[in-house]
Design goal:
Elements lengths: L6 H4 L18 H15 L7 E2 L1 H8 L3 H13 L3 E4 L3 E4 L4 H25 L5 H13 L8 H18 L2 H6 L2 H11 L5 H19 L3 H20 L12
Antiparallel strand pairs: 1-3, 2-3
Length: 244
């Protein structure tokens, strides 16, 4: 986080500082609900098409229904949940067209991410960090459908972003869409597809460690492209519609 200096501090002022105080702001009740739902999606507690029960959230978080409804409106506006008039709130199911368009964008972003990581791989302890992230990911080679695997895969990509040292890239990655994508299609990925994924993770890692930015960008983008083409071949059952 960037540090912010007041005009007086920037001039090297010797004026006495005010007494220290706690500037931390307690999260509002709607913020708590939003955070609980987001964490639940990341942890696999909530999956696409699952209904969010208002009464359960009010009980678990010890709050009234008003903040829950406000949180639902915010998450619906951000594309995380779907609100229907008669059936309430559901974790959003991504339609086929949106999956396609999201992965087209991700293809470019992940390619850029890998290329930047390759350019910076020789700095600090970046090579060690990437090797360790890849090693942790490999531990799930025989268990590629678990929530723990999804967390470790996110950590692998987070490591690539950190090595690439581009704060804007980290900000524009559509993280919640990625979480929804992963949860929606886990049951459709065959064993041979998982094996191919791990081969591609190794190719990406090796290319970055070699410092080859062009190849790293190419193989990382190709990995996402193959995922997109595979998902586009899935039956309509993979893209269920929640009716109002």
């Amino acid at each position: 986080m960037d540090s912010v200096l007041s005009p007086a501090a920037d001039r090297g002022s010797k004026e006495p500082r005010p007494a220290a105080r706690d500037d931390r702001v307690k999260p509002s009740s709607p913020d708590r609900v939003v955070d609980a739902i987001i964490r639940g999606i990341r942890a696999g507690v909530y999956v696409p098409a699952q209904r969010l029960i208002e009464a359960d959230l009010t009980r678990d978080l010890q709050i009234s229904r008003g903040p829950v409804r406000e949180a639902f409106k915010r998450l619906a506006a951000e594309g995380v949940i779907t609100l229907t008039r008669h059936r309430g709130a559901y974790v959003r199911v991504l339609p086929r067209e949106e999956v396609r368009d999201s992965l087209v964008v991700l293809e470019a972003l992940v390619g850029l991410m890998a290329g930047l990581a390759a350019k910076h791989i020789g700095e600090k302890d970046n090579a060690r960090r990437l090797r360790e992230a890849h090693k942790r990911l490999l531990a799930f080679r025989e268990d590629g459908g678990s929530i723990a695997f999804l967390d470790e895969r996110r950590s692998f990509y987070d490591t690539m972003i950190a090595i690439g040292d581009n704060n804007q890239l980290a900000r524009i990655m559509p993280l919640m869409q990625i979480h929804l994508l992963r949860m929606q299609f886990q049951s459709y990925i065959a064993k041979r597809d998982r094996e191919k994924q791990f081969e591609e993770y190794k190719t990406i890692t090796d290319s970055i460690l070699a410092g080859d930015a062009a190849r790293s960008a190419k193989v990382a983008a190709l990995h996402v492209r193959r995922t997109r083409l595979s998902l586009m071949r899935l039956p309509d059952d993979a893209f269920p519609t929640i009716r109002a």
